[in-house]
Amino acid sequence: MTIQYIKADSLMHRMSPIAKLIYVLLTLPLVLIVTRTEDLLMLLIWLVYTLILWQFGKIKVKYLAKIFRLFLFVCIFIVVVQGFMYARVGLGEKQTPLFALPWHYQIAGGADLGVFTLEGFLFGIMIVVRVITAVCALPLLIMTTSPSKLLDGLTKIKIPFSFAFMLVTAIRFVPMVDATWNRIVEAQKLRAFNIDKMNFITKAIRAYIPITTPLVLILLRQANDLQIAIESRGFGAPEKRTFMEDVGIHAREILFLAISVIVFLFCLYFKLNYTVALWTKILTVYIPMIAQLLPF
Amino acid sequence: MENEATAGTVFFENLSYLYEGTERPALNNINFSLKEGEFLAVLGPNGAGKTTLCFLLSGVCGPGIWGGKMKGRINIFGQDPWTQPVYKTAQTVGIVLQDPETQLLMPSVDMDLAFGPANFGVPKEEIHGRIKEALKIVGLTGFEDRTPQELSGGQKQRVALAATWCMHPRLLVLDEPTSQLDPLGTVEVLDAIYRLKKERKITTIMATHKTEEIIDLADKVLILRDGNIVDYGPTEDVLRHTELLEENGVRPPDISQLFLKLRENGFQVESQISLDQGIGKIEPLFKEGKLSVKNALPEDRKKELGAPILVAENLGYSYKGYEHIKALKNVNLKIYEGEFVGIIGQNGSGKTTLVKNFVGILQPTDGKAFYRDEDLSKLEVSDVAKKVGMVLQNPDYQLFTISSDKEIRFGLKNIGVPEEEMEERVLEALRIVGLEKEYNTFPFRLSFGDRRKLAVATVLAMKPEILIMDEPTTAQDYLGRYLLANLAKDLFDKGLLKTVIMITHDMSLVAKFADRLIVMADGEIIADGPTREVFYQQEVLTRAFLKPPQMTQLAAALQEYNIPQGVLSVEDMAYMLF
After folding, report:
1. Staple A213 to which of A145, A205, B152, B400, CB 3.0 to 4.6 Å?
2. Would the pTM count as exceeding 0.80?
3. How far apart are alpha carbons A144 and B447 in whole angstroms?
4. Looking at chain A, which residue has its C-alpha nearest residue B66?
């Protein structure tokens, strides 16, 4: 687990989970309405806003280093694929080749698969920024909200308690499943079965059965015990549940939401009115200018 | 009239219970009754119906969760769990289960404690008050923010107890609350239970198989076997029925076993159940000269020690991600051929980490571990398995095939035993553990005890020279507790095993079997020597939070009457006196 609650005291930690949830929900349409390369500019505005909020939530980039490292591979892949395959020739868009492979294949009315284009490269970058924007919004809710507040917050917005409870229980039991897995791997080593030393293919073919079978059986039994523990603690009682946390919307939350909505609306306004003009200028003026400064 | 009689009591009246889809009643015609504030202990071997009794009280065995058929009547302060939903019963009956792991439902201690009362709509301020008070009772003040992963077993179980208490139950039901804890955790939990009884006068029913736990707690004792009542009455009376307890698989306190021996030898003495009472009764006998030391201690087995077979040289280990904590610190140890070794210490003292370094599960982070002359870190897991076998506490982490023979073949295949030799090895291993008839049985159909035996067979089939057993008595009752240890002893005496090592919390087990005892604390070996000597090193045991067997304590108390050091068991004591 890399995205998980981190105990701290900060503005975002004190913020109601409901407000943070609304912020996450605002991110969604922004990420979804993106269609063209020039929308990159709008995404960057929201991304910067998100990163500023991170500072108020004491979230450090290093907590997420593991996830970003994983992403890096995907990002490079996206950029390479787009660089070679992007084509809007039919729409009359210009194609600027950056470099070409000795091998060519021209798709009729589409891209030349042997040529890496600037437009494709930028489109790839846009997709990457889009993914990063979406991913960066989540930690703001999850890493700054204690499970207790999350539970009460979800219940407050009328998500059924049993569903919210399920989410929180999952958070509680992930480390337990992890520990059980490790114990089984160790136990099978005693029978000369060493999964750590196997290559990927052997693992996939024969390695997982001796580990997953005991795991599933043990988890089933634990689920049984869990049911007993939950029910004998009064789960499902018809009384109105006590909220242990203050998750209401107060002045702080209203201010936060107001700022978020203003930034959100600005993003939309910016996308509709300015992006095309600004983008054209970037492509036709700034990029050639930078290109001239480069040694090659 | 009726209401007044039932409102202040808890009772079972001619109660029988049948699990869904079974023929034999799990409980048969059970009667007992408790007044408010009393403490009932339920004792009995595995399968006696202790857990069923607890689950009937809390409504788990009932229409709400598991169904089943019931005859007779249950009364809990005027309520009947069969006629109401489980959450209703939960407001009156709080239950603490065996496994500390699955009982903590929430990611932090305070959330967990709030869970129950919040379900019943108790106001927030009151819940905060209850949490504070509950943590004080169980001695965990300041632990509000901890996550379950940051707690030891004993601490988890105390949180479970506190969480139950937070619901303010009138009846507290405890189902073997200490069976999965180390000695220190057990003491912590029992202290908390003791405080609840003394300070809160809470009505309690506790199932256990450790007789010595309930001597100071219980007002009444109920003994069950195969679902039937064997004995029921005040604690003092029931625990004195030494023969009856013994016959029915309940371990009588050591001291009362000694009194049984005294009576068998013609002494007219009443049985005693606690150490202090026992000393009070026995001391006069020595003073009057009726008892005296007649024989020296029984001679211990003399076995030639061979070459060192497992060696640790400046061995150190820290777990990944916890480099600042040394799980093992600079351990130097030689274990020889021909030794039967016991390793004791609390959880986290490093004993499991030590043996894991000997079986190739862990690689030392400092120093070296050797099997004879071979550096264990240079050997493959499959090579180690042929030399050093290890049996774990819980077989369910290993068994996964559809038949016992396949289970054994799995390991043999991994170490590369040729096909033609396999059948013979499988049969032999099954014969050694006494499971020949279960050749084709699906392992999960076997009882827990038999599954453990099968796990032993899977190890023995690989023909190791050394056998390491982790807690060979866990989850076994008084009757079956030495089964695995006896099996190892037998192979050891026949020379099929060169060396046996047992890691355990069970002092009477090491007293009976081990001739060398190693005590560990904080990743270090703090004592190492013949068992009879180590158990008399009081300051070492105190440092490791361990207590010597009761007879050793008695012998120490009666030192002035020429009782020599080295007494470990009732047999030793009886051998010397008669």
Report:
1. B400
2. yes
3. 47
4. A228
